[in-house]
Design a protein that fits this description.
CATH architecture of the largest domain: 2-Layer Sandwich
Structural class: alpha+beta
Number of domains: 3
Helix content: 40-55%
Number of strands: 10
Largest sheet: 6 strands, mixed
Radius of gyration: 36 Å
CATH superfamily of the largest domain: Ribonuclease H-like superfamily/Ribonuclease H
Shape: elongated
Strand content: 5-15%
Strand order of the largest sheet: 1-8-7-2-5-6
Number of helices: 16
Length: 448
């Protein structure tokens, strides 16, 4: 539009009255609008106009430029201050010459993806603890920036496009809800040696039972031992108890379970009584008594072994995998959340989970040993565990565990379905009386 013929205030007023519905939007950029504003203000000698005439000119400029009243007022003030310059109005902002420097690079995202793959996406505090240990404990210089990564920003990196392109599959853990009747809750008072026990069934297929996983975890240190049996009767369970208790580095004081008959029976009770281990079972309407073992079933067993049916003949290789790879990784390299108990003025105990309390079970045992709250089987047990922990990094241990697990699951896939009805006999297919006798003699000799 050629508006240079509008030279008087009266013409501007008639224009505004006759074109009240007309809007202009043909400017390609702000520089053209600035040039239009400068021409109009200079042609009408804006500084010498009275208040009414200035109002008319501002209304005209608002109509033709499209700027708001506030923005137009600022631009007119700038023009008035610099009107003697060759170009009174200039853009005072531009795109940055260089983008903002990134703190976490693509290589850091790749390391985070590698850590999450190896540990199956553990919670944010545990992952941050693993990254910190990779740099400070094991001296891996690649994790220097990630060692100071906050938990909140860790989740931001997991949502980033670079992370999503490399790790796109996430599986949420399904909670296990088993009704538990309880009788008595043990009181460890900060001492290690009070274990919680629970069983997990691997499912049925065509009426055939699968394997059973036995979860044993210490209440204070969260030292955890997993085992696998073909069934949960006394003939299968009693020999496995020796294998389970041998993997605990400290003396066992308490044995807590639900009201299942696999643990509440005369054979197990006799064995625990002879070893001076207190056996407790849960109280009614107190489902939290065995919550620690139940939570480990969900966050450990179901996460790594899944929900699909596994034939009973695979119990022995699963047990070997647990003993050789899985249990050492759980206790030496996998962080766990520990709570801090706070007593309110009313006497109520509240548990708080803070990031500083994230540590591995071995790190917790070191703290308990400094306080004299753990009784190791031998004086060199803790030193041997620390040496074993420092032989490889957390990431390397997790990767070796994953490789062993993949090899184990390949044997499941290669198994023929025709052999499902001819399950292998249990290595403990001896009579319950003989099994119990062997277990008692092993404990009497203290060979484990």
């Amino acid at each position: 539009m050629d508006e240079s013929k509008l030279c008087t205030i009266e013409q501007i007023e008639r224009y505004l009255a006759g074109n009240s519905e007309v809007e202009f939007s043909g400017y390609e950029n702000d520089l053209e609008r600035y040039a239009h504003l400068s021409r109009v203000l200079k042609r009408f000698d804006y500084p010498r106009r009275n208040k009414r005439e200035r109002g008319v000119l501002l209304a005209y400029l608002r109509r033709t430029s499209g700027y708001s009243r506030a923005q137009l007022t600022r631009l007119v003030a700038r023009w008035h201050a610099n009107r003697k310059a060759a170009t009174p109005l200039l853009k005072r902002y531009s795109a940055p010459v260089a983008p903002f420097k990134r703190k976490y690079l693509a290589a850091d995202i790749k390391l985070l993806v590698e850590m999450d793959k190896a540990n199956d996406n553990v919670c944010g505090p545990a992952t941050a603890h693993l990254l910190k240990r990779a740099y400070q404990t094991y001296g891996d210089e690649r994790y220097q920036r990630l060692a100071s990564l906050s938990v909140s920003h860790l989740y931001n990196l997991r949502k980033s496009a670079g992370y999503q392109t490399q790790r796109t599959h996430f599986t949420k853990t399904h909670p296990v809800r088993n009704p538990i009747g309880v009788r008595k809750a043990p009181r460890p008072n900060g001492r290690a040696g009070f274990i919680r026990v629970d069983s997990v069934h691997q499912g049925d297929l065509d009426g055939v039972k699968g394997v059973y996983h036995i979860t044993c975890v210490d209440e204070v240190s969260q030292w955890q031992v997993e085992s696998c049996v073909q069934g949960i009767s006394e003939a299968f369970l009693l020999p496995v108890l020796a294998l389970v208790m041998a993997q605990f580095p400290f003396e066992i004081v308490g044995f807590h379970s639900d009201n299942g008959s696999e643990y509440i029976n005369t054979k197990v009770a006799k064995l625990l009584s002879k070893l001076h281990i207190e056996q407790t079972k849960s109280r009614a309407r107190h489902s939290n008594d065995n919550a620690l073992a139940e939570s480990k079933n969900a966050s450990v067993v179901r996460k790594h072994m899944g929900y699909s049916h596994i034939p009973q003949k695979h119990a022995e290789p699963i047990n070997h995998f647990y003993q050789q790879r899985f249990n050492p990784w759980l206790n030496l390299h996998r962080p766990s959340m520990f709570s801090t108990e706070i007593v309110t003025p009313k006497g109520k105990i509240i548990k708080r989970y803070s990031h500083k309390d994230v540590k591995t079970p071995l790190e917790c045992l070191v703290l308990l040993d400094n306080q004299g709250l753990v009784n190791f089987k031998t004086s060199a047990t803790l030193t041997a565990l620390l040496i074993q922990s420092n032989q490889m990094t957390d990431l390397a241990a997790a990767q070796q565990m994953q490789q062993a697990k993949d090899a184990l699951f390949k044997t499941f896939a290669n198994s023929k379905n025709s052999g499902r009805k001819n399950e292998q006999r249990s290595p403990a297919s001896i009579s319950p009386r003989t099994a119990a006798g062997r277990l008692e003699s092993a404990f009497n000799n203290r060979s484990i």
